[in-house]
Amino acid sequence: MANEIAAIRKEYMLEQLDENHVLPDPIQQFEAWWREVIKSDIEEPNAMTLATADSSGKPSARIVLLKGINEDGFMFFTNYESAKGIQLIQNPLAALVFFWKELERQVRIEGTVQKVSQQESDDYFNSRPEGSKLGAWVSPQSKVIPSREILEQNIAVMEEKFSGRQIERPGFWGGFVVKPSQIEFWQGRPSRLHDRIVYTKEGSDWRVERLAP
């Protein structure tokens, strides 16, 4: 099996990326790539790896969904009492990775993290389907539970509680925004000589450089 894994190869040949032709702001560059991603009909293009570390520096990573982009950064929502929520509150640093294999592209983001406003969390929560709203209430995310039945019992309780009225956002659930200090754009190229363009924040400006693949 080891030899089979090691033998997996793919030659990247679709596009190229030049530091002289990227936009001066990485958020704008991301949005330009994002528009191309949407046109390509990739499934769940907003899926991204979120890497965090606890107060001792122990890392962990998982897939979450991007739910907003603005001048502050990249937004997602979760249970603040989940493993990632606790880690982000204790150690507000994170990394994100997008990999769009159909376009042979990757984006890596590193930065600080803070909670979004309660209004932003309310607005997104209210846009969710009813089942997702109830799910936020009933799941003690990342905690050990005895069986799936406990979730089904909790759903029944919450359905009765909110019967005939609006499902409000629980106080332990809301958004985070990753405010980037560095963003790298990766474009696959032949012979593993990939294009890597990195933006590094310097005060209010961004420095743009090419990295060796």
Write the layout of secondary structure elements.
Blueprint: H1 2-6, H2 26-39, E1 47-53, E2 59-65, E3 68-70, E4 73-79, H3 83-90, E5 93-100, E6 105-115, H4 118-127, H5 130-138, H6 149-161, E7 173-187, E8 195-202, E9 205-211
Antiparallel strand pairs: 1-2, 1-5, 3-4, 4-7, 5-6, 6-7, 7-8, 8-9
Structural overview:
Strands 1, 2, 3, 4, 5, 6, 7, 8 and 9 form a 9-stranded antiparallel sheet that branches. The two termini are 27 Å apart. The chain has 213 residues and is of the alpha+beta class. The protein contains 6 helices and 9 strands; from the N terminus they run H-H-E-E-E-E-H-E-E-H-H-H-E-E-E. The longest helix is centred in the first third of the chain and has 14 residues, at 26-39. Helix 5 (130-138) packs across helix 6. It has helices at 2-6, 26-39, 83-90, 118-127, 130-138, 149-161, and strands at residues 47-53, 59-65, 68-70, 73-79, 93-100, 105-115, 173-187, 195-202, 205-211. It has one domain (10-128, 172-211): Electron Transport, Fmn-binding Protein, Chain A (Pnp Oxidase, Chain A), CATH 2.30.110. Strand 1 (47-53) and strand 2 (59-65) form a beta hairpin.
